[in-house]
Write a structure and sequence with these properties.
The protein is of the alpha+beta class. The protein has helices at residues 22-28, 37-41, 50-57, 196-199, 211-230, 268-279, 294-301, 304-310, 338-342, and strands spanning 4-7, 13-16, 60-62, 67-72, 79-84, 93-98, 108-115, 120-129, 133-139, 156-162, 179-184, 186-195, 234-237, 244-247, 258-262, 287-292, 314-317, 320-326, 331-336, 349-352, 357-371, 380-393, 400-405. The chain is elongated.
Amino acid sequence: MEQKIATGAAGASHVIGAPLSSAITREVAPDLLVNDIDSRIVKVRPMATPIDQISRAGTSRKCKSMIAEYYSVDTVPTMATVTVASASSGKPTGTINVDFPAIFSATETVLIPAAGDDKRDYVGYVVSVNDDSIQVRIIDKDDDNLQFPDIPAGAKVIRMGRAAAELDVQTTQAQAIPVKHKNFCQIFKAQVELGNVQSAAAKEVGWTLSDQEELAVIDMRQGMEKSFLFGKGFRFDKGAGYGEVFMTEGIWHQTDNDFHYTKGNLTPNMLVNLSRKAFTGCGASSRKVLVAGSGLIEALSSMETVKMVGATQTVTRWGIDFTEIHTKFGRLYVVLSETFDACGHPDDGMIIDPEYLQKYVHLPFCTLPIDLSKSGQRNTRVTVLTEASCLVLRYPTAHVRIIADDEEEAPTTPVRPVGPGTGDGDSGDDGGLGGE
């Protein structure tokens, strides 16, 4: 009996007259069977496209539309700044005006470092929260003679754990509402056309694509790498017969967590500042990837501390050879990306947390063979490579953009966060860069 494929009443496909094989399944439902093409693509020039390599080696999410919608959620800030100096009230309880009173709630305890004339650390209990201030009771062993201290403007008030009463069952509710974002899946394509006579003599490589197709994949991935990094999200209608064009937004534009340094003046202390910014305040991984242009790689390689710590320490992950830099805040996997050079950012870079780098795929990477000789056009065969995908940062504050400024444009504010326990970073040790 001849094989037939019939469409059911509800739109499903039915195979009649032949067993259900992988070939038939791929013909009828090409997305039903998981294609291992990604595991083969990552073997082609992985060092040239580190962002695409990491995203492709991880787990991709299927996107049913060209518009990928996703949610990201942040944590409640742990610290607020005093906006108006508070004078001693002569009582244990006083009012503190802060910039973000909404992050506090009654029954929480707070730490006020270096307050009062004696510049000591005070611990308080939040009695109530108002629109622009919080009522705090200062706690100490000698509670009878305790007075609310003078608290200068600019001091920090740090949230600590709650202190419930003995008979309390409930406490102030705390819910997080995720923020909805979207990105566009861009349709990436490459095309290879070979004459039928020449294709018969084409050399085959280990992953079943010809040499010409391999070169096309390399070029396609390099273009995707640029779009995944620096693309601008946009959509427009190309006109009748074409439909909409979707352009994806690069991950460079998906975070405002910036680190600035003066071009040609990257010091070991600044590297410590960078590590602190990358690994603190976001609750993310202790291992992150630093993808950098050649200028930033040159500046890092010129540091004696990095030469000692990272010169001989290499690690291979996702098929990429990284130089590993140890700091007391976490580990940085450093790799050169010529995409930064090609896009005009040779002195810039980006620290990425792979745990929060997500790839959405609308059309998985696939090849479409076309025989033009059958249509009477040319005695050639065409292979069209296609993928519709985008990259998103699920937790934007877990990633850092490294921006090099010209000397006259360098920011006047210190790059190291100002807060309790922040030293000047000029001590004689390694300043936070650590070896084993």
